[in-house]
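Page header: ASSEMBLY MODEL / two components / 638 residues total.
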Amino acid sequence: MSRRQPDVPALVEAARAGQPRAVARLITLVENADPALREVMERLAPYTGNAHIIGLTGSPGVGKSTTTSALVGAMRARGLRVGVLAVDPSSPFSGGALLGDRIRLIDHALDDGVYMRSMASRGHLGGLSWATPQALRVLDAAGCDVIFLETVGVGQSEVEVAALADTTMVLLAPGMGDGIQAAKAGILEIGDVFVVNKADRDGVDVTMRDIRGMISLGERKEAGQWRPPVEKLVAEKGDGLADVVAALDKHWEWLQETGTLQQRRERRAAEEIEAIAVRTLRMRMGTLDGAGDLAALAEAVVAGEQDPYTAADRIVEHL
Amino acid sequence: MSRRQPDVPALVEAARAGQPRAVARLITLVENADPALREVMERLAPYTGNAHIIGLTGSPGVGKSTTTSALVGAMRARGLRVGVLAVDPSSPFSGGALLGDRIRLIDHALDDGVYMRSMASRGHLGGLSWATPQALRVLDAAGCDVIFLETVGVGQSEVEVAALADTTMVLLAPGMGDGIQAAKAGILEIGDVFVVNKADRDGVDVTMRDIRGMISLGERKEAGQWRPPVEKLVAEKGDGLADVVAALDKHWEWLQETGTLQQRRERRAAEEIEAIAVRTLRMRMGTLDGAGDLAALAEAVVAGEQDPYTAADRIVEHL
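Prediction written out in full:
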């Protein structure tokens, strides 16, 4: 972790000029929570806000990587610069968990207009809510027109990551009971575009019907509301790809026309600011003279001599 | 949510006297993040620290509920008072997701010596790390000798919940590829006792071998280290139950003899204190005059006029 001090102005300039190594280096600074990040973000700020951030979620086995790869190809064919950020919220232990899954994206590995990066969540010190928006910010400022934010696994972390996207695409596959899974995990509420991949398999109609039924159940009737479309796709062959891209475009237009984009981004920025502030405060708690205090308070709580609220008050008072 | 002010001294007394409704009411206060919690925890503090908290994790389908039910029966047969807390970290939206899964535990529903409760995580305002330890504290102070902390789903949230237990039991089943899943999710690192349930099925020996192999790979060689046992179980029939209970007992003894229990509990208490402190600070950020400031700062960040770090500094300065 201890490297020489990065030359931030040069790195930012190189990233802005489209040099993949500079982009990669900046995201590594994010992963390592490098102190230089403050200056990085200050310099990147004026160049952010262009990219359409598309979240991609779905259970293992639905073909997320193949679909991402197909979508990257479609966006590249339109001359757009594309970023792919894959986040693994299920692995607190290592940064390498995603390598196996990334093989599909090797098609695009030598394409200058595509940045790919996987990122493991780093414990709980701010976690996803802290690092992911900043990595997105780097890709955005580096000139990506579209960024795919892919998450592995299901559950609350996935919902959190999806909340960082402008458009959330939920990927399903026939015969996996995904409809029910989706409802359980609250994915229905977060999906802007639903895609049933592997649509050449048996059971595709049942899955389409299930998911449409659930959408109309949850539908809000007001005018101007977005009605999530459900598209069929065979990502491996590219069948249905144009429809999926059109659905993503349409949602992007809707976001802009209705002012929803601005609202979502302001809410996200507020959460990002809060996450950084909380991290700052946590670091102060840990480094406080302070560190000894916390240990002593914990000992008193274990002994039943003090309750955790009173102990927390003591910590907050010291900040 | 708006109820009359709870009579905390009376509630705590009733919970201490073993009244299930009082215990349930106290856990509801935790779920609702009721302001009265501070007084509740203050009064409960002297009565905590007795219970052996056993975390139960495993993929869906391995038979967690059946196993919990069997273990509850075994502990009750020894005259112990038992708590069951089921946490669903995958559902940020509702508190009812677990009802279906809880059917197995109905065997014990009329038993006075068993408290059962399921709890959904409530959004991200401190989340699991905030509410779960306090619910455990209630059950502990209410006189439970053993508390089973059962989690639904896999991933980081599960790892977090498991970290709240004294003993973490990882449940597997033959032929589900659980070995690999376990390794991926980092469950191997957190398991103190491994149990292969449904051990009357094909493939049990492969699963046993896989998991033993992975444990010995990760094994620390120092003397006094705990070597996680791997036990076979057929929870539905009770086969192997005595061995599982013996393994849990043995780990409990090891925790106490080596001082590991004290260490783990102090680390957990420190995290609990920190989580409460962070929540307090977050609430201040949100209610600050303050709320308007955050919105204005978020707008500036979206416009690229300000970076999130500088914005976060402004928030922290105001605290």
